[in-house]
Design brief:
The structure holds 2 protein chains of 2 kinds. By secondary structure, chain A is an alpha/beta fold. Chain A contains 10 helices and 10 strands. Chain B has 6 helices and 10 strands; from the N terminus they run E-E-H-E-E-H-E-H-E-E-H-E-H-H-E-E. Classes of the chains: A alpha/beta, B alpha/beta.
Chain lengths: 290, 190
């Protein structure tokens, strides 16, 4: 486990989760120094997968910062009574303080009806933090579309987990000046390939998870084939790419990341559901000499 | 000059739907149902101005459910001879409306203000653009005059204008001419 808890850093845990045999499991997160929303949502999905399959699930944490951050992000409120931990959660609760960078703590959503409330809250926080209308619109449309996808296609026992965080520096990719908003959501539904495979017209594009993911990012591709459907994800990927950020879509053993001028696919350990991570940087405009 | 017709305006941000933030298909469905009720109350030939100017955010799902499906039903004749006009300025918010209408190969008339110059949002088939422009330039024009202006025969001209009328982008009026004859007149919606 590296110092940053991301979706990718959980790969070995996901690879091992398939062989959980009912005995107790401990996730060793002691090397983690920094948790990004994608890691938090990935961890929540992993725990939801492991808890019904294992006698007991534990997470081992080190230091104070990571447990304090998890507490601020509502992690222990959602998992405290289902997961054993070495962290002193009671003392964290007492010291709980507001984190101005947090736009949305880890939230467990089940239906589309919950989305407008989430969007309203985030839009308000963004406005208070000085985000311009255009930026707020981009961030909120991204979040509402991916939440709606999860609520609609992700019918799962636990629904979906979403988290949003604003950083005063760039956390993804190469070092550069600027700020960044990270949005992540994970659901435990049937996954992209199975959803698209319901549409017989897409048979050719659903032979592998990566094929299905690449196709899901095209305009107008949906499991129902209804006209007008399947536009959200393509537009969201466009918003992220135009801002200089990226969108990663992961489901089954596939992962596709869309950047402004390229799209990467790779095979990854099985993810039981669908996961989306969006990075929206705010890069300061370089001053041009006149 | 085009005939005076009944019109009504519907402020999308004014209802109890979501105020300035319009997201999700279920919110879109609620707005569409309210718009459909208002349309049903309009006399035949009337125009409904869908005013989205107070809305800050409209995601694709909302835009498709509220406006894409509404335009699609209008084009299939579900609302009879009643027209939709979007009241919205040229801003980012239009992107999702545009994407939904293009997905559906549909278009809507758009104005910045009620009474403002009409424009198009969405997709008008390439071969109909000149016909639409000629009708809007004229305000009101007979099939014979339009055919002459575009250098088309009467049947081809009528086919094009009928298609535009079906898309809800123009009015089409039938007038009886000389004994047993009929004449079509096309008019701009706004």
């Amino acid at each position: 486990m590296s110092g940053v808890l991301t979706m990718g850093s959980l790969d070995p845990a996901f690879a091992g989760a398939g062989s959980a045999d009912g005995g107790p499991v401990v996730l060793d997160l002691r090397a983690v120094e920094f948790v990004e929303p994608a890691g938090l949502c990935g961890l929540a999905a992993l725990l939801e997968y492991l808890i019904p399959r294992c006698e007991e699930v534990g997470i081992a944490l080190a230091g104070r910062d990571v447990p304090a951050y998890l507490e601020r992000m509502n992690f222990f409120r959602l998992f405290g009574d289902r997961v054993r931990t070495n962290a002193d959660v009671a003392s964290l609760e007492e010291r709980r303080r507001h984190n101005p960078g947090t736009l949305q703590e880890l939230i467990n959503l089940h239906t589309e009806e919950e989305i407008p409330g989430i969007i309203e809250r985030i839009s308000e926080i963004l406005e208070n933090q000085g985000y311009r209308l255009r930026e707020r619109v981009a961030i909120c449309s991204v979040l509402s579309e991916i939440c709606a996808n999860a609520a609609e296609h992700g019918r799962s026992s636990f629904g979906a987990y979403a988290a949003v965080q604003a950083y005063h520096h760039i956390v993804s990719g190469p070092r550069r000046r600027g700020e960044e908003v990270l949005i992540a959501i994970a659901d435990g539904g049937p996954g992209v390939r199975e959803t698209l495979a319901r549409n017989p017209a897409l048979a050719e594009h659903t032979t592998t998870d990566n094929d299905a993911l690449r196709h899901a990012l095209e305009m107008g591709v949906s499991g129902t084939g209804e006209i007008g459907r399947g536009g959200g994800l393509a537009l969201v990927a466009g918003i992220a790419a135009r801002s200089g950020g990226s969108l990663s879509l992961r489901s089954g053993t596939g992962r596709v990341t869309v950047y402004e001028n390229r799209k990467n696919s790779r095979n990854v350990p099985e993810f039981p559901g669908t996961f989306v991570r969006v990075s929206l940087p705010r890069i300061p405009q370089e001053r041009t000499s006149s | 000059m085009p005939e005076e017709r009944a019109h009504r305006a519907f402020e999308v941000a004014g209802g109890d739907f979501g105020g300035k933030l319009m997201v999700t298909r279920s919110t879109g469905r609620a707005v569409r149902e309210a718009l459909e009720e208002t349309l049903a109350d309009l006399p035949k030939g009337g125009t409904l101005y869908v005013d989205t100017r107070g809305v800050e955010l409209m995601d694709y799902s909302f835009a498709d459910e509220a406006l894409g499906i509404l335009a699609s039903r209008a084009a299939s004749g579900e609302y009879g001879d009643r027209h939709l006009v979007l009241v919205e300025e040229d801003r980012d918010l239009l992107e999702n409306v545009e994407a939904s209408l293009r997905q559906r190969s549909l278009a809507m008339i758009r104005v910045d203000d009620i009474g403002g110059e009409p424009g198009i949002v969405g997709e008008v088939p390439e071969h109909l653009v000149a016909t639409l422009q000629a009708i809007y330039d004229a305000g009101s024009i007979t099939n014979a005059a339009l055919a002459a202006k575009l250098g088309l025969n009467h049947t081809a001209c009528n086919n094009r204008a009928t298609r535009l009328a079906k898309l809800g982008l123009i009015h089409r009026r039938i007038e009886t001419a000389a004994p047993g004859g009929r004449q079509y007149t096309y008019e701009r919606v706004v």
